[in-house]
Amino acid sequence: MPVRRALRVVRRYWRVLVRYSMRYTAPARRAWRRSLQLRVVTITLLASSLLVGTFGAFIADRSAEILLSRADDEARSALNTKVKFAYDQLTLYPQPRDPQLPRALTELVDDLFAGESSARGNTVISIRAEGSPDLKAVVVPPSVDTSDLITPEMVKAVTGPDGGVSRQIRTTEIQGETIKYLVYGSPVTTRFGQVELYYMVPLTSEDQDANLMGTTVLATGLALVILLGVVAALVTRLVVTPVRVAARTAQRLSAGLLDQRMKVDGEDDLALLAAAFNQMAANLQRQIVRLEEMSRLQRRFTSDVSHELRTPLTTVRMAADLIFSERDEFDPAVARSAELLQAELDRFEELLTDLLEISRFDAGFAALDAEHTDLVPIVERVCERLTGLAERVGVELELRLPDTPVIAEVDPRRVERVLRNLVGNAVEHAEAKPVQITMATDDAAVAITVRDHGIGLKPGEERLVFNRFWRADPSRARQTGGTGLGLSISVEDARLHGGWLEAWGSPGEGAQFRLTLPTRAGDRLVAAPLPLIPRDRTAEVS
């Protein structure tokens, strides 16, 4: 249990750390996503830093090796000379117990040290006689402690049976200063036995030269990386700036400012891009202006024709009403013709009214007369008016309404028209099966669904049903004598309210239309209180 508790604490702190890191790095991540120039410059800096760093490290390492190799060659050459000189001087003493030998060793070391170049300070020379305990080690300068420089391993390598020249690099502290030494040891064979000559050369100048070279390489590499970053920024700017200008110009074009153009400079590829963009914008402007003019003429033609048809339609309506009222006095064929004329005139008048309404939407003249309205009576009134039609085709209307009033700021005339179209279409396509009208509300929206269990909709037809004059089955006879514009007007009414009108359907399983309206005019919808796909269908799928 303590382990689990500790793991939970770690996970909790880790989530907190990730959340804070994501919050504080959000501006950087947003700049990285949005700026092509930043990405190119950053990648160039990283790649050049890696390349220059690797190359600089290689150069510095090779330089240090060359300096050390040169110092090693010089030290080995000097060692050979000193070994020969020591051999010549010590051959004069045949016995290790000669009383003059200690003084001779001291003088020998002094002579060897005096022959050192003054350019290398802190050089140390020592002679030992491990095989002659009576002879003490001699060191010049005598103040230097050689215990850190001449290790037991090195002494063993020099004095052993297979002894010879040995080399190592050691570091010691002399008068508070840490110095690196190249230490050479070599046996010197004499008449009285073997002594060991140790030659210790400081590598101070080599270290200084190596550090200076490393600093130079680092400074040069840093300057080169910065220069590459500046060059990358300038080159990227040359490419990114026209692209940004093109993006801003495209945004202005999409906002309706069709006269926006890019500035063309030079004859390079970017200039060709700007010229091609301007040509495209000019062609687009011409096409849009032409389409707007055609659309304006079409809307004007529809509006003018609709208005002009009002006068003859009124005259024909008066004559048809007169004939229809006297149909009982006609023979059956003429009476039937009078009834057909009356029905078609009613449909023609509805079509004319719908065309006028569509022309208002197209012209942008449709206005919302919103007021606080209880939507429950509107739904009940629509169903009451369509009850006769529903009974005639054998369809039962099922109402599922809240018990309390549902108040929303809407245009009641338009909402009633939308519901009349939805319920009328559901009755027409229900195929003698029940139609459910459901209403639900929350703090922000009101939703009304109309569900039938008839022929349904094929995939993709849920978007086509709102097109003007579209019919799923053109050969199917209309029961209600609709104009084919009802759903088109309904979706415009919903948009005028700031709401949604959506459709769902499945072949053989019926269809459902959902009207969603904000409870307050001007509010933006986020969600609907009722699902678009019926709950019974959702349960079957799950």
SSE topology:
Elements lengths: L1 H23 L1 H9 L1 H55 L10 H14 L9 E5 L9 E3 L11 H8 L6 E9 L2 E14 L2 E10 L1 H51 L14 H57 L6 H32 L7 E4 H11 L1 H6 L4 E4 L6 E4 L1 H18 L5 E7 L3 E8 L8 H4 L21 H11 L3 E7 L3 E9 L16 H7 L1
Parallel strand pairs: 7-9
Antiparallel strand pairs: 1-2, 1-5, 3-4, 4-5, 6-8, 9-10, 10-12, 11-12
Helix pairs in contact: 3-4, 3-6, 6-7, 7-8, 8-13, 9-11, 11-13
In CATH terms, what is the fold-level topology of the largest domain? Heat Shock Protein 90
Radius of gyration using CA atoms only? 51 Å
Per CATH, the superfamily of the largest domain is Histidine kinase-like ATPase, C-terminal domain
Q: What is the overall shape?
A: rod-shaped
Per CATH, the class of the largest domain reads Alpha Beta
Q: How many domains comprise the coordinates?
A: 4
CATH architecture of the largest domain: 2-Layer Sandwich
Counting DSSP H or I runs of 4 or more residues, the number of helices is 14
- Helical proportion, percent range: 55-70%
Provide the structure class: alpha+beta
Number of strands: 12
Q: Which regions are unreliable across 5 or more consecutive residues at pLDDT < 50?
A: none
Strand order of the largest sheet: 2-1-5-4-3
Question: How many strands, which pairing sense, and closed or not: the largest β-sheet?
Answer: 5 strands, antiparallel
List the helices and strands in order. Answer: HHHHEEHEEEHHHEHHEEHEEHHEEH
Distance between the termini: 39 Å
Q: How confident overall, as mean pLDDT?
A: 82
